[in-house]
Amino acid sequence: MMNPSPILLQNMEWLLDEGSDAIYICNADTYELLYLNRVARSLFAIEEEDPIGKPCYEALMHFDQPCPFCKVSQMCRDSFCEREFVSPTNHLLLLRGKLIGWNGITAHIEFVQDNTKRDRLTRQVRLSEERFRMAISMTDISVWEYDFATKSIHQSVHSKRCVGGADDIYNVPQSLIDSKHYHPDSEGEARAVFDRLAAGERIVDAELLVHDEIQDSYWWEGVRYSTVYDTNGQPLKAIAIGKDITEEKNLELRYNEALRNNDSVMANTLVSFQINLTKDLVETCIVQDPRMDNLRQFTSVTDLFASILPSVSVDREKVAGILNRDVILEEFAKGKGEFELEYCRDLGDGVDCWLHVSIRLFKHHKLGDAIGFIYTYDSHLQKMTASVMNAVVER
User: Fold this and answer.
1) Are 200 and 235 in contact (CB under 8 A)?
2) d(Cα 269, Cα 295) in Å, to the nearest integer?
3) Cβ within 8 Å of residue 372, ≥6 positions away
4) CA distances, 15 to each of 18, 59, 122 (Å)
5) In sequence order, which residues have a C-beta less than 8 Å from that of residue 55 and are 6 or more positions away?
6) pLDDT tens-place values along the chain, 395 residues long
7) Whole-structure pTM over 0.90, yes or no?
8) Hey, CA dihedral for 45, 46, 51, 52, is it positive or negative?
9) Among 24, 68, 155, 366, which residue carries the largest CB count within 10 Å?
10) Exposed/middle/buried for 61, CB within 10 Å: 0-12, 13-18, 19+?
11) Which of 245, 179, 187 has the alpha carbon at shortest distance from 213?
12) Are 74 and 83 in contact (CB under 8 A)?
């Protein structure tokens, strides 16, 4: 940097004041402060006393000797000497200095950036990321990212079961299909996921049957891709969150199978109900015998059970102990899903009739509620036949 001309010197102060960096200039031999711009005065909290002429380490850094991070002896005119340090006012500063000629004096100019806020935000982001990683590691949730430009997936150790063995996987989804990561039944759905992302959908959900390389088996993965855009609104990456939903899918399959079988089972019943025991709801009531028609009115399982008890003519207390919503829910929570009961009651025609009640419960694959069916059969003939046979045997 050449010595400034007289005209440049006259305009130097306002030129340097227009910059966004803090700038100061010192005598390279004596450390005497020669110039300080407006931003530097604010950064170093100089308000009233003019620091020009004082040693820079005293006026700016409040040291009684040259700063420990000073590199003026290593500076040259052709390149900058860069260093970062924490000031006595606890600011993280980045200094870029070089030698210059200043009105016939060998001086050094320093450009100062206050990186305190940036550093604080960086540490906060890192801390948040670490907390997020720790939280994710304690769950069965995995996170990875898809890069639109390279058609690649980058994943962490925790997500490798969801996507595959390598940290970076390219040519997605074709490479995953070729490696048999997806079950043949899910290949079409997997292609559709990335086609929808490429078409501009911001959120894409899917349920895919994927291969577990460790167990050499398939399991159900629920995944949601959320697109992240750049400043120009173009898709940059898609962040994926995956979860093992195998248990939910198995419950769904069992429930759907029960629904398919329900019509054939109901044909032989006097009355049947579809219920949500958790919410205490009777969702549907199918009456095959007119004597059971009064049961259509009930929308609560508790009320339904309560309406049956007064007409029970044998072992009423025992029946009450079984037809109890709280008791059944407690047993269901322990893993029991089938309940059988036989009781005798008056169906309204003045004649006692033996009935067989079968309760089948399932855990709803999405709600987690105890749902299922109550079937009531006429078991009077079987009961009477068994009674006669027992009497014959006893004789």
Assistant:
1) yes
2) 14
3) 258, 274, 275, 277, 337, 359, 360, 361, 362
4) 5, 23, 32
5) 30, 31, 32, 33, 66
6) 445 555 555 555 555 565 567 888 999 999 999 988 888 888 888 876 788 899 988 888 888 888 877 888 888 888 888 888 887 777 888 888 889 888 888 998 888 888 888 777 777 767 765 665 555 555 567 788 899 989 998 876 556 555 556 778 899 999 999 989 899 999 999 999 999 999 999 999 999 999 887 778 888 989 999 998 877 788 888 988 888 888 888 877 777 777 677 666 666 788 999 999 999 999 999 998 888 898 999 999 999 999 988 888 888 888 899 899 999 999 999 999 899 998 888 877 777 888 999 998 988 877 789 988 999 988 877 776 666 555 555 55
7) no
8) positive
9) 24
10) buried
11) 179
12) no
Secondary structure (DSSP) of 181-219: -B-GGGHHHHHHHHHHHHTT-SEEEEEEEEEETTTTEEE
User: Closest Cα partner for 173 from 225, 219, 220?
Assistant: 225
List 264's β-bridge partners, or say none: none
Residue 121: phi and psi, rounded to 5, are: -65, -40
Cis peptide before 173 (omega within 30 of 0): yes
* SS3 call for 177: helix
What secondary structure letter does DSSP report for 126?
H
Return d(Cα 375, Cα 289) in angstroms, integer: 13
| Distance from C-alpha of 109 to C-alpha of 102, rounded to nearest angstrom | 9
Q: Which residues pair with 241 in a beta bridge?
A: 143, 224
Q: Are 320 and 330 in contact (CB under 8 A)?
A: no
Work out the angle between the directed axes of helices 301-308 and 325-333 (0-180°, nearest 10): 120
Per-residue DSSP letter, 32: B
Residue at 395: amino acid letter: R
DSSP letter, residue 166: S
Phi, psi of 263 (to 5 degrees): -60, -45
* Four-residue CA torsion sign, 328, 334, 337, 343: negative
